[in-house]
């Protein structure tokens, strides 16, 4: 089996982890959550020598989707995800920009395809199961690759913390359910990348994350 790799580009004032997931042999991959600074993301893609096949979105907040339309047009690829419950957030990114006082222009996003619980998406033979994990955002999804024992969890779970739930559509109880019922049962050995800060392993979070113990 070829190797799944990830390159992280930290973008915007939100210090968001835009991830380039790719196959190390075929050099094909996807961009997950291009939150902005599209030229920096494109430079990282070129540096890695990867041919991008799609843009995947975990949820509809501006720090994760703010650059999606510009990157789509630059690369000529589809935007896939998140769950349709985040349609309203994606259609109001311009309003989110105003709310946070961000400089424009910011473009609303229309995905080419929404995703639902249990679907799979893939590139270069690497298959990811889609888990609908609301709480941080109504349509938040997680991408889980069983073979690589890896998950991209967006803003559901962090190293030592969890996603905030004080934004529109947030639900603390739903977020905790998503983590405890969908993520942690995947196994302590599962490594994860998240939307901000360092990643980790589910087992460490189960044992020591103050929001979960």
Estimate the global geometry from the Cα principal axes. Answer: globular
**Order of strands across the biggest sheet?**
6-7-8-9-12-13
Examine the secondary-structure arrangement and name the CATH architecture.
Answer: 4-Layer Sandwich
Which structural class best describes the helix and strand composition? alpha+beta
Number of strands: 13
CATH topology: Metallo-beta-lactamase, Chain A
Binned strand content = 25-35%
Please tell me how large the radius of gyration is: 16 Å
Uncertain residue segments: none
Enumerate how many helices there are, as a single number: 7
* H/E topology pattern: EEEHEHHEHHEEEEEEHEEH
CATH superfamily: Ribonuclease Z/Hydroxyacylglutathione hydrolase-like
Total domains, how many?
1
Residue-averaged pLDDT, rounded? 96
- Our measurement of the CA-to-CA distance between the termini, rounded to an integer number of angstroms, reads 36 Å
Approximately how much helix is present in the residues? Answer: 10-25%
Summarize the biggest pleated sheet.
6 strands, mixed
């Amino acid at each position: 089996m070829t190797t799944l790799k990830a390159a992280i580009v930290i973008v915007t004032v939100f210090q968001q982890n835009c991830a380039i997931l790719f196959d190390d042999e075929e050099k094909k991959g996807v961009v997950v959550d291009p939150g902005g600074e599209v030229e920096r993301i494109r430079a990282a893609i070129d540096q890695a020598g990867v041919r991008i096949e799609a843009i995947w979105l975990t949820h509809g907040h501006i720090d994760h989707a703010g650059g999606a339309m510009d990157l789509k047009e630059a690369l000529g690829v589809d935007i896939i995800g998140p769950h349709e419950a985040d349609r309203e957030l994606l259609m109001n990114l311009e309003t989110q920009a105003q709310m946070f006082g961000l400089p424009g222009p910011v473009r609303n996003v229309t995905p080419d395809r929404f995703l639902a619980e249990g679907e799979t998406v893939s590139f270069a033979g690497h298959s990811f199961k889609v888990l609908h994990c609301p709480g941080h955002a109504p349509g938040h999804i997680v991408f889980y690759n069983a073979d690589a024992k890896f998950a991209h969890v967006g803003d559901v779970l962090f190293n030592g913390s969890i996603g905030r739930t004080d934004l529109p559509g947030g639900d603390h109880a739903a977020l905790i359910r998503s983590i405890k019922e969908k993520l942690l049962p995947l196994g302590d050995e599962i490594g994860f990348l998240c939307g901000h800060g360092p990643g980790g392993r589910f087992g460490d979070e189960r044992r020591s994350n103050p929001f979960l113990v």
